[in-house]
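RECORD TYPE: inverse folding
INPUT: structure tokens
STRUCTURE:
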């Protein structure tokens, strides 16, 4: 553990067991990034956009959560959306980027929000955001 900490590569995934077949947030983020760069040429503009994505993704609690590793769920995505100021540019980007991640990871319920509906969460007061009907 000390070596990981010293090298800046510490991850709870190496120290906490997860059930077989369960993929935690950090694993999904790595797969999403790998897929992105397989489809996108690494230009200055693309790298700048990716940094924007990372800024949003870093808000996901992707390692230890309540003593266990956290899986990617609709609640985890919406938690980040709720934390962003309503009707802001950041909230709209958060909705868009997390929808793309959720769709990529086939998160239960994300399709029910629909690409046409999740960006509208940007204008909904935090207390009113719930899972889709």
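DESIGNED SEQUENCE:
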């Amino acid at each position: 553990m000390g070596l990981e900490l010293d090298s800046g590569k510490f991850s709870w995934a190496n120290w906490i067991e997860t059930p077989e077949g369960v993929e935690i947030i950090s694993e999904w983020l790595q797969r999403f990034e790998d897929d992105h760069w397989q489809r996108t040429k690494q230009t200055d503009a693309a790298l700048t956009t990716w940094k924007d994505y990372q800024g949003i993704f870093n808000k996901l609690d992707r390692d230890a959560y309540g003593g266990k590793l956290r899986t990617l769920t609709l609640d985890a995505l919406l938690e980040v959306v709720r934390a962003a100021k309503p009707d802001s540019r950041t909230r709209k980007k958060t909705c868009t980027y997390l929808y793309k991640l959720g769709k990529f990871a086939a998160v239960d319920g994300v399709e029910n929000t629909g690409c046409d509906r999740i960006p509208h969460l940007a204008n909904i007061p935090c207390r009113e955001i719930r899972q889709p009907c």
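NOTES: The two ends are 44 Å apart (CA to CA).
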